[in-house]
Amino acid sequence: MNILLLGSGGREHAMAAKIAESPQCDKLYIAPGNAGTSRCGTNVALDNNDFEAIRKFVLDNGVGMVVVGPEAPLVAGLQDFFARDEALNKIAFIGPSRQGATLEGSKDFAKAFMQRHGIPTAAYRSFTRETLPEGIAFLRTLKPPYVLKADGLAAGKGVLIIDDLETAENELHNMLENAKFGAASDKVVIEEFLHGIELSVFVLTDGEHYIILPSAKDYKRIGEGDTGLNTGGMGSVSPVPFADKAFMQKVEERIVRPTVNGIREEKISYKGFIFLGLMNCGGDPYIIEYNVRMGDPETESVFPRISSDVVELFNHTWNGTLDRATLKTNPQTAACVMMVAGGYPGSYPKGNIIQGVENVKGSLVFHAGTKRDAEGRLLTNGGRVLCVTSFADNLEAALAKSYSAVKEISWEGCHYRRDIGRDLM
Ligand code: AMP
Ligand code: GLY
Prior knowledge:
Blueprint: E1 2-7, H1 10-21, E2 28-32, E3 42-43, H2 51-60, E4 63-68, H3 72-75, H4 78-83, E5 92-94, H5 98-105, H6 107-116, E6 124-128, H7 132-141, E7 146-150, E8 159-162, H8 165-177, E9 187-191, E10 197-205, E11 210-212, E12 217-218, E13 221-223, E14 227-230, E15 235-238, H9 245-265, E16 272-281, E17 284-291, H10 299-302, H11 310-319, E18 333-340, E19 364-367, E20 370-372, E21 378-380, E22 384-392, H12 395-406
Parallel strand pairs: 1-2, 1-4, 2-3, 4-5
Antiparallel strand pairs: 6-9, 7-8, 7-9, 10-11, 10-16, 12-15, 13-14, 15-18, 16-17, 18-22, 19-22, 20-21
Helix pairs in contact: 5-6, 7-8
Bound molecules: adenosine monophosphate and glycine.
The site of glycine has 6 residues, from loops.
């Protein structure tokens, strides 16, 4: 079968590497991909938002399965576009419908869904410009810190956590009256602050059955000790030591099962990944958010641990037979360290020459923002440039391997966090 994978990050490189391993995969196309994915298949210059171009490519190239990496095409309705087209609707499609993607695309929708299905989450209320005075009054009933969230997609920047009431009131005003996050903040969710430690759990569902993939923890801030600006993610480890059997049983009973049951009961068309952003509050899991895709850089530590044939898992997902699938995983720990361009997550240069990747032995290098020039040299082409994932019997050893591999790689201004996973040891 020919497979088309959409996306261009480290997540997609890690997915492409697994898909390419499958005996069921004939040709793998990655659109648009990066310099790393071109080693797993063929990169094609397709704009993920140009549905007609995707349609033409799929039909011209006999693609039998489409796997969607990022959320944007899903939120824009790519699955629905396939479902209503006679020529496309028999093609296996891994990713939810637009309605399903609203679990990520609208925080208000997601919170209401959690509430309808009794899924533990922070108490909340939503406000619009018309109800700004009620929003201010609600803030005054809460204890700090205050959590304000733009309802819509805001490139990971739409969540504000504020220590004092006056700033919180001003920011609520800015979001609702001054469109601080554009249309994404036409509606704002205000919620209770949860104290605890975060982790990510990934689920693959056919809309009725599910399998739970390995857990992971990511490191979002640019600076060591979780300081400084938020980034796309600076590293990840899998599994998460505190996500033991007892905790994961609670996650399954209280969060995964009611989520999948809710999707089924509400007749939401959903065949794809669910990313649960969780908080462990004293041993009890609460859900902070849903995403409708895999995480990045969590995928770079989760996917290499999957030893089952992922294309077979995707076939089960498409056919509604995930109850017959078994997930095999590598019990070792995987640790991923992200290397970023100097200046990221602010402005940063592109086109610096990357050296030393070929010297890395015994670790995996996943590319994110990379490309090759006409002479075949590897260049930086984004903020998050590439990451190194290593396996070992324990977290300490996996991290040591990754950090020693990172030292082999360099370019002008390259930066990485030196404390990935340290909080867990
Ligand atoms: P989100 O985009 O919803 O994942 O929020 C971004 C980050 O804000 C999360 O990863 C958490 O670190 C933090 N956060 C969001 N909601 C809460 C909450 N209710 N309590 C504590 N931290 C939160
Ligand atoms: N690592 C968090 C995300 O992918 O949203």
